[in-house]
Design a protein that fits this description.
The complex is a heterodimer of chains A (249) and B (72). Helix content of chain A is 78%, strand content 0%. Chain A contains nine helices and no strands. In chain B, helix 2 (19-37) packs antiparallel against helix 3. Chain B is built from three helices and no strands. Chain B has helices spanning 2-15, 19-37, 43-71. Chain B is mainly α. The chains are: A mainly alpha (249), B mainly alpha (72). Chains A and B meet through helix 4, helix 6, helix 8 and helix 9 of A and helix 1, helix 2 and helix 3 of B.
């Protein structure tokens, strides 16, 4: 039986990290559906989800075959690469060195891209919109799958992590169905900063465990690592903050 | 095929967003693995090297990128 205190960090981390990915996929599907017609967009989304399910069903059982230390090392390193990349980008964005990601702008770009290609087709089946939705769902979905595996595998927390990711999907779809617009108000950089910190903390912990390091205090070290990465990230923002000038896109 | 290529490219970008950051992290992990695996340092010291090494890689990467941007 998994206790709430053990499961909560996995649920929370998977939820927050997945939220960012689902918002990105939702923005593209919304652009495809609005501009090219909903039949193609919904079919593309369904095909993307089916492909994802196939990948998970096919590869999921393989996780049990991998020795625990190797699994921890591989996932720990991938988490570190993923988390450090997010934290770096979030720091640079918060410091004003690169531009903040804007879902409204992304929606506008996808819309322009779709309308440039061929004439608009709001009814009937549209392959272009379907392919666009399929790609977005598959790619962002694979990132969600990785996040779930990363925070859940090896500790028996795949189910809580999956529930966190599922909750993110439900929240985004529910809000999206109500507002019917890109979720531009989601503070993406703040979320990415937080997720970057969490993934780095898990990454150092798991990589260490995979290398045979017994951390003092066990799982509590994840909190220490998280606090340290948070402080370092905030410090880095203050140090490199751009006073004025051109912001890179 | 085009979709597969784009998905593969997207996945690669997940982990190799910045080549120097990736190289730095992999170097720190390899160094920690070598030092602890060979018994040259006790595991706990290896853990400290791993943790502090990652912090140094992150700060250095952000600082260099920030300075390069400011000098432009």
């Amino acid at each position: 039986m998994i206790s709430l205190t053990t499961a909560a960090p996995a649920v929370g981390a998977a939820f927050v990290a997945s939220l960012v990915e689902v918002v990105e996929a939702f923005t593209i599907v919304l652009a495809a559906g609005t501009l090219r017609g909903w039949r193609g967009a919904v079919a593309g989304t369904a095909a993307g989800l089916a492909t994802l399910a196939l990948i998970v069903v096919a590869l999921g059982p393989l996780l049990d075959q991998v020795p625990l230390h190797l699994l921890q090392l591989v996932i720990g390193v991938l988490l570190l690469l993923f988390g450090m990349g997010w934290l770096r980008k979030a720091v640079l964005r918060a410091a004003g060195i690169i531009a903040l990601h804007d879902e409204n702008a992304a929606f506008a770009a996808e819309t322009a891209n779709l309308s440039d290609t061929t004439t608009l087709r709001r009814s009937g089946f549209d392959w272009l919109g379907g392919v666009m939705a399929f790609k977005a769902v598959l790619l962002e979905g694979l990132e969600v799958v990785f996040i779930v595996i990363a925070v859940g595998a090896g500790r028996g927390l795949l189910v809580p992590a999956s529930l966190g990711a599922l909750a993110a999907c439900v929240v985004v779809l529910a809000i999206g169905a109500i507002v019917h617009r890109p979720l531009a108000r989601v503070p993406e950089n703040t979320l990415k900063f937080a997720v970057g910190v969490i993934l780095c903390a898990f990454g150092v912990f798991w990589t260490g465990e995979g290398l045979g390091i017994a951390w003092p205090g066990g799982d509590l070290m994840i909190l220490f690592f998280g606090a340290a990465f948070l402080l370092v990230g905030l410090g880095a923002v203050a140090v490199v903050r751009q006073p004025r000038g051109v912001i890179e896109q | 095929m085009n979709i597969l290529r784009e998905v593969a490219g997207g996945l690669l970008k997940m982990f190799v967003g910045d080549a120097w950051l990736t190289l730095g992290v992999l170097s720190v992990v390899s160094l920690t693995g070598l030092l602890t695996g060979s018994g040259a340092v006790p595991p706990l010291l290896g853990g400290a090297i791993l943790f502090l090494g990652c912090i140094v890689v992150l700060v250095a990467n952000v600082a260099v990128y920030g300075r390069r941007h400011r000098d432009r």
